[in-house]
Amino acid sequence: MSSKVEQQLEDLREKLRYHSYQYYVLDDPHIPDAEYDRLYKKLLALEEKYPALVTTDSPSQRVGSKPLTAFGQIQHQMPMLSLDNVFNEEDLYAFNQRVQDRLQSEEEIEFTAEPKLDGLAISLRYEKGQLIYAATRGDGTTGENVTQNIRTLQSVPLKLLGDNYPDVLEVRGEVFMPKKGFEDLNRVARSKGEKEFANPRNAAAGSLRQLDPAITARRPLSLYCYSTGIVEGGELADTHYEILQQLKQFGFPVCEEIKRITGVEACLAYYEDISSRRDRLPYDIDGIVYKVDAVALQKRLGFVARAPRWAIAHKFPAQEEMSSIIDIDFQVGRTGAITPVARLEPVFVGGVTVSNATLHNMDEIRRKDVRVGDKVIVRRAGDVIPEVVRVVPGSRKKTLPEIQMLTHCPVCGSSVEQIEGEAVARCTGGLFCQAQRAEAIKHFASRKAMDIDGLGDKLIEQLVAEKLIATPADLYQLEMDSLVALDRMAEKSASNLLLALENSKHPSLARFIYALGIREVGEATAINLANEFKRWPAVRDADYEQLIEVQDIGPIVAQHIVHFFQQQHNLDVIDQLLLPPTGIRIEDVEQSESDADNHCAFTGKTVVITGTLPTMSRGEAKEKLLAVGAKVTGSVSAKTDYLLAGDKAGSKLSKAEKLGVRVIDEATMLELLSVPV
Ligand code: 9MJ
């Protein structure tokens, strides 16, 4: 009886090991997670029934032990090596030369190139295929016994696969926390008001040093193996690269980026390739390791102190360095976002000299408690804007004043608003603020706003740079002479532009509202405002209570609108637009277009537009639909009422048909629009 159960148990364990290997090591799961869970539960149930038959290498025994009071020590039978570093090409060439000299070889050397993971080195000892212990590197000779924690890592085999592994096998590798797991972990910590980890390396180290393995088990730790220690009762291949392939067959995870290459030039190409993809790799690395591939050559080269002569780490420039804050300024972005920026003692970090670093927003300044005069850690990772990570703990020797948020924009003096629940503070000077000018004017002139033909983004930037315009109102004061004096501006295009400006002076109320670029007032909101208030002065004078009554306008948008019209600068620009000599005449929403008249089959319905329409663009169709109070969305769902389909309608059409959504063509839309309901 018991042997039959034993067989059943062992079959289940084998299956689970196999699928775990497919999932964690080969990244190629053969069964759905739910099926794995079913097998696992079956194993648990059977083991619960026959506790005497539970083995330590069972997949159920990853979190088996109770919390420790301290870690024991383990002597490494073969010392765990460290690596010498180089930081530039010249020193890499010198390393290669030393290798060739020692080997008395003129030939290019074969290397295995590996990403250098930024985690914790550990050594795993297996006897007869069973995991015996796991130890940290420690000082290279003596490490800490972290077996019960390492057992909780799903990617660490408790029992090796196959049967041609050596009797005794020590495998070395790096335990690390993938970037995503790190971010998730910190997000949870933040939401609970707990302390966050500074980086994935610290998070990995902290997770592995838990005395309670149940905590380690919940942390997203991974492992990649990259070398071996003691090998007895069996032999491994005679090149490093092939040994790694063997380790993979035994069940160990090995980094997919590892490559065998020839010569130092190929090393540099590998370095460049990985550097360029570094930000996109799912784990942190701090350089590349090159290892002489042939084990026989490694033996001839030997060691100096603890580092092998046959390997070298080619480190990336440090991404974090220390500096001091000389001052904190506030910058106004093109959308009015106000960002505190630290002026720093110049420091070489991430490969460039950095003297400014972002502090993101006021919440971040408070959270990090950064003050002028502080010693700080500066980080520059890849092409990301350098940032102040934190104050160096204990470095503040005297009290320094706290940073106060600005109440007025440093560029235009408008008041600064911070919407509750939003981290970013913004200048409310929209149309007036120099920092936002070009963007505000681009928006004003755009097709869906004032639709000024021939006034593209480049030209606007040029006009702003030449100080010919500062606000949208200045557009209408442009003259032939100053326009033709511009680079690449012919007389014909200048006169076309002046004509387009003249033609733009009769916008609908909705277009004019949209053109003002009030935060979060898009096309649809502008149309709702126009339909609600009918006349321009009523929109301008609407108060908060009236605004939140309007369809689709909530407290935040209402606040943005109120703020916008409270700014005297904005009112001045609007006056310049509406009064002579410019004299824009806004077309009110006609009173006859009363709510009832404006109602048709589309009012309050959700419409999706797809394909090429015969006589109008999708944008024009959208405008017509919005004007009667329809909602126009991008994808077809059960909530869609109509699909307006033109030529070459693709997947949206088939989806609509599947869901039974009514499909109409342009002619039908025009007909339905003209029938009041
Ligand atoms: C890391 N950290 O990724 C070695 N390493 O080899 C790789 N570390 C190493 N190899 C011998 N890929 C000693 C250390």
**Poorly predicted regions:** none
Could you tell me the radius of gyration in angstroms?
Answer: 34 Å
Helicity level: 25-40%
What is the assigned CATH homologous superfamily of the largest domain? Answer: DNA ligase/mRNA capping enzyme
Number of beta strands = 24
CATH architectural name of the largest domain = 2-Layer Sandwich
Given the helix and strand composition, which structural class is it?
alpha+beta
Number of domains: 5
Q: What gross morphology would you assign?
A: elongated
In CATH, the topology of the largest domain is named D-amino Acid Aminotransferase, Chain A, domain 1
**Would you state the CATH class of the largest domain?**
Alpha Beta
Largest sheet: 7 strands, antiparallel
Listed once per kind, the bound small molecules are: 5-amino-3-(furan-2-yl)-1H-1,2,4-triazole-1-carboxamide
Span of the ends, CA to CA: 80 Å
Strand content: 15-25%
